[in-house]
Amino acid sequence: MSQKIRSAMDVVLDLIHPTEEAKVAIEVRSPFKADNETETWSGSGDDPALHRRKILAVVTHLHADGKHEHGCVFVLSERLKRVKTGPEEFLLDYAFPIVGSFAISMSQPRRTIMTSKTAIGEATTVAYTLLPTEIFPELTVTINPGGDSPFAPITLQTNDLQGLRKVLDECKRLRDASSAENEDDYDFEPFGWVAPYIADDAIPPLLSPIPPDLRTIKKPIHTRLSPARAGAPGNDFSDMELIREDWMRRKVEEELFAQSEKTILRVRIGTFNVNGKMPSQDLSAWVREQTERSASASVFIPPLKEISPLTMEEAQQHPVEKELEALDFNRMTAGPDAATTDASSTTTASDAARSATMSAGPTSEETAVSESPVDVPEDESDPDMLVLGFQELDLSAEALLYSSTTVREDAWCMAAFAGLGEKAALYEKLVSKQLVGMLLVIIVKKRLRTCFSEIKTSSVGTGIMGMLGNKGATAIRLLFTPTPPGTKAPEYESKPTVLTFVNAHLAAFDEMFERRNADFHDLSKRLQFDSGIVADEAVAPGSGYGAATVQLSVFESDTLFWLVNLNYRILLQDADIRALLAAPAQVNDENIKTLRKFDQLAFTMRNKKAFEDFTEQPLSHPPTYRFAVGVLTDGLGYDLKRKPAWTDRILHMTSSAVSVKQTSYTSHPMITMSDHKPVSAGFDVEVPVLSMHEYQNFIERLWRDVSGLEYVEERPRVRVSPTTIDFASVFYKRPATKVLQIENVGNVPCSFRFVSKAPAADPCPRWLRMSATTGLVLPGEKAEISLTAYVDDALASRLNTSFTRLDETLVLHTALGRDHFVAVAGDYKRTCFATSISWLVRLPGPVRELRFPSDILPEDRGVNAPREIMRLVNWLMSNATDVGGLFFERGDEELVQQIRESLDTGAEFAVDRHGRDPKVALAFADALIQFLDSLVEPVIPAALHARCAEMSSRDEAFEILDELPVVNVNVWISLTAFLHFIGQQDAYRDHLERLVALFTPILFRDDLSSLAPVSVVGKRNFLRYFVG
After folding, report:
1. Mind listing the GO biological process terms from this record (predicted)?
2. Which residues pair with 665 in a beta bridge?
3. If you count Cβ atoms within 10 Å of the first and of the last residue's Cβ in the chain, which end, N or C, has fewer?
């Protein structure tokens, strides 16, 4: 079906901004040229030439004062495309300001026109001369931009006589108006409005082939804007660029990606420190998460002897290498371009800082299908892509200094394919990259081979002397272009997604914690890929140097995966770690959770020292290092010389353009050939399926509306409503939401941001959360910002003991415009949660009845223990001792809120009307846990934690209670007596250890900011003296 040709006026209207007006637009063409000079795109074979449309238009702009009108002549040319898959797209060739020196003229040439017609199978050439009376005269238009213009005069031709007359009339009117003006008549640049159309960088950032840096877009946009406050705006121009790009990105996600079809790429990632070993076990559990193999798929991998590290000659003559060479492994597992991909595999230390770019040629679909036996079923659970990272592949001295053999890479690749069993026929090796002991291999399904392109590799060494490759990283970057579902036109081009994988090995040993952080930042800076795009500052031709190209960071990706031997350890003492791992299975989950809190990587990420904004699924498997065979091991097989640790990790970071769902994360203890256990993770990478043409058109439509923000002459005008927001009562951990509406009542787009009232202050108070701190509104449209009042533990602890009136003024700054002020207020209702025990006992009554902070009682008139804790414990003792799952199952949050309200007001528990409903008991237990966890200081003060952990008998434990404040002792005795009683019940007789593990970090709050935490086992022992 042929596509509708838009009129010249429609084309121009689609191009210009709402602040401009198209007076007239006509079709034109370039003057007659020889065949080899015509502006066409010649076809091949019998395809006809594609003619390039041109449009000439007069566009005007009326200044905001309504007095000054200026115009330009625009000349547009159609963007040439071999296959027209959508509406025509036009580029602006010229923009000639109509000023006093501007000239435009029309003439009617007299020349011979060659035409042809067919008569009885013959081609006849007819020559004739145009006469003024012809119906469609050919007219020549000459435009002279004037002496001050950098452009030379141009000549165009048209048959539109009436349209051309309108062009001449408009040009004369505008030129006369311009000549009558003086520079003193206005204080603005009269043709500043033209700048967005002709700017060299007027290309939407979202159309860049290079994705934005993930580290940047993960930061909240308000943290990237210039410093500003009320009455003192920052750099509005730079802020507008960032706000505009963020607004466009959200529009694309909400209106394009969200509505498009999706495809899921199933990625299985594995990391394995092989400790210099050759494969000698079945890897199926690691590569396909399958422990049992069918008889037809059973593969025996004979143990392979070590390559001698003594001489290179020995290594070169090793029988394993000969066997692998005879098998020609790379041709077995790779496609037709295997030689290209394998060329990127290197083991030399000299390659440590060199980036290699590969052009992976496509494999035809027929080839891929023919190589896959038809009797091999493809299951939905099969991964589409296998990404395997190996560390310590080769520990020999020769490998560190020089190595050209790929025998170890080939052996491990062969073992991986053997682990796939009969499914191996569905896969081929796509690419690999090796640096000494680090190897990164990507294996994909053959039928998807053509979906991967622009494969690039890189490697960096950070080992000995900070350079050699015994430590460092290898990386692979590639484009995944999904195949559109259903039948699409052959010319359909899908939008690709950039995937990057990094296999790293960081510094070892417990004390090298800071060095590991430094290694991460070093790798983040030095790991780069050659884009092949010539940089703007590239050297001039003939200088003797090659042109510089743009280098791509590993973070310039849509999704980034790190599969690493990070070597981060656990901060607890060795004895604590082993005791927690050897504890009964019933407390395994709690112990793993405890160990996870003290993991060095978790500490690093919490404190933003490294791997900031990365995501890791919570660990549920035991530590994967260090295992040994022999007498110097504990009962779990861990080496007694090294603390067990989660050294082998898989993390990821992704942009909002891609959805990544992690489906698994585990270790594989049945593979015992190394001192590490291999780790694997499954991911479903969901990417939108849409054509590049559709994507580009959507971006360009957005861009046309907002590209001229920096050049508008009219001030943006918005209406903000309401200007006063009252949240009324604000309760602890109960969000209350109001909506602020921003309406653009002006004629130009408006970008806005919230700024602070004073220097160094936050634009938003602690108790208020905004759905967006910046935004952009088009003329006639509205934006809604959700404002949510929310009081968390930290804020409640301050408000409970101070004045409770919440008052704030928000400042909404419009770029190049004025500030708007919104008053927000609320009354906080005090709670007994998030307070201290010593303060609660001095309350004269329920906390909600406290009018002023000074109304609390003197210390010597306080009660013996907080009423609220006693009410909870007494209710549980009276009503819940026979309820199973107490403290182990979460209570209904609505019921917990009702219980909290009764505690705060002193009213009777309203939930008692539910009778003996077990979910009420669970809610009371949960309320007690939440109450204790919210206390400003735990029941056992932090200063006594170390001494409590050292107690070795029940008598010693009771003696140390004398050093606690009396109210703390009373709370401790009440709680432990209740736990002791619960532990004696039949339902909890086998769960006492779980109760101890659950309550210890609540009563002894863990200090997660310390690099030398107090013994967890010691604190549990102290609690056990009272409840066990």
Report:
1. phosphatidylinositol dephosphorylation; signal transduction
2. 681
3. N
